[in-house]
Automatic annotation (TrEMBL):
GO terms assigned for molecular function: thioredoxin peroxidase activity
Pfam entry (one): AhpC-TSA
Assembly description: Monomer.
InterPro entries: AhpC/TSA, Peroxiredoxin_BCP/PrxQ, Thioredoxin-like_sf, Thioredoxin_domain
One cellular component (GO) term of this entry: cytoplasm
Enzyme class: oxidoreductase
Name the record gives this protein: thioredoxin-dependent peroxiredoxin
Amino acid sequence: MPAIAEGDLFPDFDLPTDGGGRVSRAMLGGKPFVLYVYPKADTSGCTAEANDFTRLAPDFAALGIPVIGLSPDPVKALDRFKAKHGLGVTLVSDEERSLLETLGLWVEKSMYGRKYMGAERTTFLVGADGRVARLWPKVSVPGHAEEVLTAARALPRQD
């Protein structure tokens, strides 16, 4: 389970993005945002999730809600991933795992009997007040982006 819960203040962060930019909670201050954590760029589940959020990006933008994908991949891998699939969301690199560890999402995993450390697929909808409005741990990708959009539409408007 994530180290923070619904209602908690989302932790501060300042991380590099695809394309050579940066994003921080301060830069997003006063605006709601979606932050989805995915394990590895250009894998099947992560690509499907990124494509789903990209397809719905105009709907999130109409609500004034940026969508940010976070992984432990280096920025160069994110740039290739974004270009290869024409992704329309901001991708953030947490190569040092500072935010992933703060969120409790750098966890031991197991595949085919082999144990390794990796990011746990989780999504946060953060309200304009900086608090976690909704949390989806251990996400199943099909239909997930639509579910997040429905929750985002229910957030109080900050006009």
